[in-house]
Amino acid sequence: MPERPARSFPGRPVADRLSLSMRASHLLVVLLVVAGLALAALGSALGDTFYLRLATEALIYAGLALSVDILLGYTGLLSLGQALYFGIGAYVSALTLMAVPSFWLALLAASGATLVAALIGGVIANRVRGVYFALITFGLAQVVAKVVYNTRELGASDGMIGVPVVEVPLGPFHVSTGSAPGFLLVALALLVLLYAVSAYLLDTPFGRVLIALKANERRVAFLGYSTWRARMAAYVLAALVAGLSGALYPMLRGFVSPELLYFQVSGNAVITVVVGGVGTLVGPIYGAILLTVLKSVIGSWTEHQLIVIGVLFMASVLFLPQGLIGLLRPRLARWLGRAEPPPAKAAEAEARP
């Protein structure tokens, strides 16, 4: 019997209950943008730097959490080594900036290096499933971290310092990475762009295939779709989101270190996804902001902030399995469903002169 050709993934969004949930996530992102603009304006007026830098760091780690949720929330793949691509993006961005101080060139180089690494890592990791996938991704990150740790040209254990401050050309405007309110807005814009691209792709039939993979991979193969291609596409998409987010880190801190590749960074990203809400896309963003602020506040009181974060994680798993946004988003989706006119009434309204 001839093999049925694998179907492609059309790009047209699908309108159903999942789309309403996605629209609820969009509304929460709009609220985040408003809050970010207000914080930047307030910080600029007060001359604050610390809290604006902290908020920028939270947005950068939110991109890493978003990449974890693309795999875990939609494909059911738990990556314990997503810091690999976050660190690659950070190191390549730092090397580019120290050679040619260009913001866009640094992003381009980081995305190119991340793409190559994701294709190699995806071929290796997607050969296995379940806990073995998590262990493979963990192992890949540890191997690269050890190589970076022992490479003198990359600063070895001390990392690389002296990343210059650069200008971000935005048409007629220029924003310096040394400007706390300006760079906060740049990080917010990049995060929103990464979210928008991810949300669009996941709200198409391609996203439905990923959800079906999470539910029952064998049935997806019987429908004629290539399960390997779908997993690989999701893996590469998540890696690019993490790599582009990591590219902003040396611009914020002025240095990079092998710690960006360690398991602690990947583990914190998984915790933020669980706390914010798995499979919501916007939940990990709010979770990353919450945990970054908590770590800073609790760290100023005690050295044992990891205990508090651990207790928060266990409480989320036991009492809020859907996460914080997982509780709020269904209510917003129902409200949007009631506010949206039925198809017949919508068609009648469009036909009126």
Distance between the termini: 56 Å
> How would you write the strand order of the largest sheet?
1-4
**CATH fold annotation:** ABC transporter involved in vitamin B12 uptake, BtuC
Stretches where pLDDT falls below 50 for ≥5 residues?
A: 1-5, 343-353
Overall tally of domains: 1
Number of strands: 4
Name the CATH class.
Answer: Mainly Alpha
Kindly provide the radius of gyration, computed on alpha-carbon positions and rounded to a whole number of angstroms.
21 Å
Task: Describe the protein in words.
The protein is mainly α and 353 residues long. The protein has a single domain (17-340), classed as Orthogonal Bundle (ABC transporter involved in vitamin B12 uptake, BtuC). The protein is built from 15 helices and four strands. It has a two-stranded antiparallel ribbon. Strands 2-3 form a two-stranded antiparallel ribbon. A hairpin with a 2-residue loop joins strand 2 and strand 3 (173-176). Helix 2 (50-75) runs parallel beside helix 6 (180-202) and helix 2 (50-75) runs antiparallel to helix 9. The longest helix has 30 residues, at 17-46.
